[in-house]
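Human: We require from you a standard protein entry with sequence in single-letter code and fold as tokens, and nothing else.

Assistant:
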Amino acid sequence: MHTTPMALGWAALVLVLSACTSGESQPESVDPGSANVGEWSRSVLGDHDGMLLAGDHEGGNDSRGAFQNVKAGWYQLTMACAGGGNMALSITADEEPVGDGTTGCDAPAVNAHIQVMADAGELEFVVSNSGEHILWTVGLEEASEPSPVPTG
């Protein structure tokens, strides 16, 4: 397992998941065994103004990364993986469970708006999958409160 912290960032105490959307473009096929993790992450997330974590994951072991000192507010969380299979992401804030999500690898990045309800020391991400060798990336950047999703 190899984790590349691309920037130091923020953490949270309580997150509220609002809406999930997929990115627009289909990523190019990537060989996790030979790709540069940082370059791949930047190619997937593009002009990302927030904090980034990226790693190389072998199934059977968890990969971890964390953003430090996250302030209360709204953020956009972006996650993506390459190499086949799926990526499961679990989030904890100061060691308390916050939430989780799953996305298919080699698919467009998935975005979710989250609300950090209180400042916290560490927002940790744990990545796992079904055994495939994958690259993964998680981005967190400040965002405005999303519009309510229409019902009915």
Summary: The chain has one helix and ten strands. Strands lie at 2-5, 15-22, 51-57, 63-70, 73-82, 86-93, 96-104, 110-116, 120-129, 134-142. Helices lie at 37-45.
